[in-house]
Specification:
This protein has ten helices and 15 strands. By secondary structure, it is of the alpha/beta class. The structure holds adenosine-5'-triphosphate.
């Protein structure tokens, strides 16, 4: 397990992390979400020894991370960390050597990752000549080239075109299949929803929600019901007790039910107005869950 445990961090009087904790199992992908300035980068920098926590620690396989363990972690910093004048291939090989690979292994791994990330044609170009997205691919190659046991990636998808997103996603999923725990931060919640086994939402210095997307959904389940009655008169649901009409368009109605409201009462009321063609709980998207969690930060860990 990769464990972030009880991290506290203040900058002056500004408390950024107030007991942040989550775990990432080997072979799973964890999406680290939160508003701008929530503290995601700070959390990852603490893991990498680039910021010191006021309290708490990060462990890998039960051992607190030290510099030796960190050499086994592939890290993509938010500020990126490339040498602009170095050639792409040299740069990636340099990171491989830095993580302890010998010259032969570094050359082989560099060749493999440069090709896999679609940089083969740019291998001898200086990094500064590459577009932002391609520089990002170089950064990723640098994080992957040492065959890391763990990946910690700060906004790896930002600035990538859809093809870049797909090749990065494939690369990460193949790492996960190989047993690597992957943590990445992102504001692209559709990607997080698509790729991650579990997600954590950081707000107010705490993880306000962690779990699988389905677990987060279940927490919200039983609230939003979509009912389609094509021939129903307008406002048919307005008088159904324990129900609030969220939206109504033609016969397509989205209802929020109070906890004690029986959905069968709603179904009976709908049937009384006409033929019901759709009656189902609405699955909130991760974007909706995120808005809810960030708006009302009350720490809940559904993964327990
Ligand atoms: N070295 C520092 N000195 C003072 N304040 C800092 C420092 N590093 C970060 N902060 C502050 O800590 C807060 C959290 O920043 P951080 O970069 O960790 O957030 P984030 O969740 O990664 O944000 P974003 O999504 O915008 O990248 C911000 O208010 C930031 O200004």
């Amino acid at each position: 397990m990769l464990e972030f445990d009880g991290l506290h961090k203040s900058f002056g009087h500004h408390r950024v992390l107030d007991g942040v904790g989550f775990t990432v199992a080997p072979g799973t992908m964890f999406g680290f979400c939160g508003s701008n300035g929530a503290g995601k980068t700070t959390t990852m920098r603490i893991a990498m020894g680039l910021a010191r926590p006021d309290a708490g620690e990060v462990r890998w396989r039960g051992r607190p991370l030290d510099q030796a363990l960190r050499r086994r972690i592939g890290y993509m910093p938010e500020e990126r960390g490339l040498y602009p004048k170095m050639k792409v291939g040299e740069q990636v090989a340099y990171f491989a050597r830095l993580h302890g690979l010998d010259a032969g292994a570094a050359a082989r791994a560099t060749g493999e990752w440069v090709e896999r990330l679609g940089l083969g044609a740019r291998r001898t170009d200086p990094v500064e000549k590459l577009s932002l997205g391609n520089q990002q691919r170089v950064q990723l190659a640098a994080a992957l080239v040492s065959r890391p046991e763990v990946l910690i990636l700060d906004e790896p998808f930002s600035g990538l075109d859809p093809v870049g997103v797909d090749s990065l996603a494939d690369a990460l999923l193949s790492q996960v299949r190989g047993g690597v725990p992957v943590v990445f931060s992102s504001h692209q919640l559709d990607l997080v929803e698509r790729l991650c086994d579990s997600v954590g939402i950081l707000a107010g210095g705490r993880m306000v929600a962690t779990g699988t997307v389905d677990e987060l959904r279940r927490r919200e389940a039983g609230r939003l019901l979509r009912v389609v009655v094509p021939d129903a008169p307008p406002h048919w649901a307005a008088d159904v007790p324990g129900v609030r009409v969220v939206s109504e368009q033609g016969g397509d109605t989205l209802l929020e039910l109070k906890a004690e409201t029986d959905d069968q009462t709603v179904l009976a009321a709908a049937l009384a107005t006409g033929r019901v063609t759709h009656f189902a709980w609405q699955q909130p998207s991760l974007v909706e869950l995120f808005r809810e969690a960030v708006a009302a930060p009350s720490a809940t860990d559904v993964a327990a």
